[in-house]
Amino acid sequence: MSSPCEHDGICVNTPGSFACNCTQGFTGPRCETNVNECESHPCHNDGSCLDDPGTFRCVCMP
Hints:
Elements: E1 10-14, E2 17-21, E3 26-27, E4 33-34, E5 48-52, E6 55-59
Antiparallel strand pairs: 1-2, 3-4, 5-6
């Protein structure tokens, strides 16, 4: 049987149900939602933030 948790989340049995422990960068009951790490403005020196699934990248200005 496949896991109900997306993006490599770990399924944990609970009484009568389940819960998902999500990997970094994902959230939601089934880990279905990508966290937008760019909302916290992690890039410095006028770098542009690109949100990728489960992570982000900073693009530095030349």
